[in-house]
Amino acid sequence: GTTSSALKGAIQLGITHTVGSLSQKPERDVLLQDFEVVESIFFPNEGSNLTPAHHYGDFRFKTYAPIAFRYFREMFGIRPDDYMYSLCNDQLIELSNSGASGSLFYVSSDDEFIIKTVQHKEAEFLQKLLPGYFMNLNQNKRTLLPKFYGLYCVQAGGKNIRIVVMNNLLPSSVRMHLKYDLKGSTHKRRASAKEREKAIPTYKDLDFMQDMQDGLLLEGDMYNALCKTIHRDCLLLQSFKIMDYSLLVGIHNVDKACREQVSEEAVAGAMDQRRPPGQKSLYSTAIEAIQAETGGTGSLDTEDKTGGIPARNSKGERLLVYIGIIDILQSYRFVKKLEHSWKALVHDGDTVSVHRPGFYAERFEKFMCNTVFRKITCK
Amino acid sequence: GTTSSALKGAIQLGITHTVGSLSQKPERDVLLQDFEVVESIFFPNEGSNLTPAHHYGDFRFKTYAPIAFRYFREMFGIRPDDYMYSLCNDQLIELSNSGASGSLFYVSSDDEFIIKTVQHKEAEFLQKLLPGYFMNLNQNKRTLLPKFYGLYCVQAGGKNIRIVVMNNLLPSSVRMHLKYDLKGSTHKRRASAKEREKAIPTYKDLDFMQDMQDGLLLEGDMYNALCKTIHRDCLLLQSFKIMDYSLLVGIHNVDKACREQVSEEAVAGAMDQRRPPGQKSLYSTAIEAIQAETGGTGSLDTEDKTGGIPARNSKGERLLVYIGIIDILQSYRFVKKLEHSWKALVHDGDTVSVHRPGFYAERFEKFMCNTVFRKITCK
């Protein structure tokens, strides 16, 4: 098998090559066919006239839909040089919190990009999704969907390791006091004992309902804009028969952070010092979800540069909320059809998170806009 | 069979109904599935609770991809009310120059819209084209492709009559002194004797090469922008294996028009008075092709409001040139595959207009940017 360091090395060599060779091709419009293209290049250990020598085993690197992803990166404001530099010029850092999916996660050392290994079916599904993803990106600038920057495959030792490059939703320079993975389902949606032992556990729906009974309070304009965005995203996901996605919610408590800062030098403020703060503020998904269409200016503007949405908790403390819809690839029609039929027999339909896409979307939307986010009433 | 007046009436009733019922549906993003939708409504002679009574035979009206075309109309700046009003509130005028295709052409009485009957295969092909058309519209604002506003089908007396609503490239308020249908082919590309008898014949490639040996002279910026646009459009058409399209070129000679105006009252200036000038200047395709990306302002701005591209002929006379790519539906892979194989045997490959799409596109582009349009050298 490929060791983690060999995988990281292969990813970096592969991305360097593919971005480099792409930059030599002239700019042109993305065509429908571009979504189906797969480019492949062989990296022999001893090097070739196209590839450098390296100290890993021979491998092959495949790039899916290169022209389409170049367009997406451009739409997201990622310059080719920055993309390559962030991912390839320094060590990729492996994250331990791989969750239940069994995926490996890496983050670029500048904290900008997440690399996630995906299964064959997920990669295939993402490729099928690309035309609809293109359409969404062009109509719905506020979308909370993952920003997909690239899809690749490393073939080595008879194995295929598929990876997807995405935006990092939670900037490591911002201390998250609370973290939730929310689906709008109550069935078994509580963080495990093991999860709770972590420094910053990822809590779930039942935990949220118990700990934050008044939800996250938003100004009226922001609340409306956010719920509109969630509605549009849910319609899209439903149209693709996608289910089981989550809203990842990171909460930074500004007031708490101020109090903590006083005694910070004494305490081990480990989290904040792990890495230098991101340079390009790519974490903007959250704030974009409510203000992309206003052009980033106007009444919804905030001083925060990390992309958090300003909110309050029931105590009136100031919060910055970081959100994004995650895990949209791992569940869809084919996989979940079976699962649903027997789970629906066993459990109450309303609380089973694996349900038909329309029901899933509606429940998700309702939970987020009634329970998680609330409008501040009379100031 | 359906008489022309019954067809016009059915079109107007159908469009009124479909635009009206669409306006009652809430705005939402276009999804991939929307391209495949066909809505159908029955119009019995005696009326129904959904449709008014009318004095034609019973008919059924089908609307293809209503949500997608609503999006396209919005992108083109056509408000639903204006669309309905222009097409349905006054008589549709039948045009006589149906050409070789056998299609019927109607123009709305305000001169804004062209309605064209299309064959089953063409309608089917347009529907398949829609995702790629969407992509092009979002990337290439300068495109010279037809603006498709709607695709419908009238079913009456066992017959299906499919129609497509498009922009009118040549404003009737502007007298066209010359008109060309250009393909970049020389094989049989000369206007027939019958065509030449018309008041304003549509000339072809060989006529152009003979009559306008120095081509249409454009300022450097405009020339470059236009050729870039033609290049991008050709790449798209090639990607869809489309061939046999033409560049429709209408030339208004400003200086000639000034001279004519002096004696106009004496002469029958019939052309100009046929209809009131268009209200909304939808003929902007031509000028958009060189300036859409500059937002309509900047150095390329002209005083002309009808959308003509300012140019000169070899005598130095001022021209306004109206252009657009037409006939992109009637020829594609399936239809033309056969035709090519035997024509290629008979004729020189270079001069047969029916050739493989890549060759067709390249020859088209070369002809337009080398022979038809020329850059003004040293002022």
UniProtKB/TrEMBL annotation, chains A, B:
- Give any Pfam family that matches: PIP5K
Matches recorded under InterPro entries: PInositol-4-P-4/5-kinase_C_sf (IPR027483), PInositol-4-P-4/5-kinase_core (IPR002498), PInositol-4-P-5-kinase_N (IPR027484), PInositol-4/5-P-5/4-kinase (IPR023610)
Where in the cell does this protein reside? Cytoplasm
The main location is cytoplasm
Write out the entry's keywords from A to Z. ATP-binding, Cytoplasm, Kinase, Nucleotide-binding, Transferase
The UniProt entry, under CDD domains, shows: PIPKc_PIP5KI
Specify the PIPK domain's residue ranges: 3-372
Molecular function (GO) terms listed?
Answer: 1-phosphatidylinositol-4-phosphate 5-kinase activity; ATP binding
Highest taxon above the source species: Eukaryota
Look up the record and give one Gene Ontology term from the biological process aspect: phosphatidylinositol phosphate biosynthetic process
GO cellular component terms, A-Z:
cytoplasm; plasma membrane
Q: Does the keyword Nucleotide-binding apply?
A: yes
Q: Which PANTHER family match?
A: PHOSPHATIDYLINOSITOL 4-PHOSPHATE 5-KINASE TYPE-1 ALPHA (PTHR23086:SF54), PHOSPHATIDYLINOSITOL-4-PHOSPHATE 5-KINASE (PTHR23086)
Protein's name in the database: Phosphatidylinositol-4-phosphate 5-kinase type 1 alpha
Q: Which organism is it from?
A: Mastacembelus armatus (zig-zag eel)
Lineage summary: Eukaryota, Metazoa, Chordata, Craniata, Vertebrata
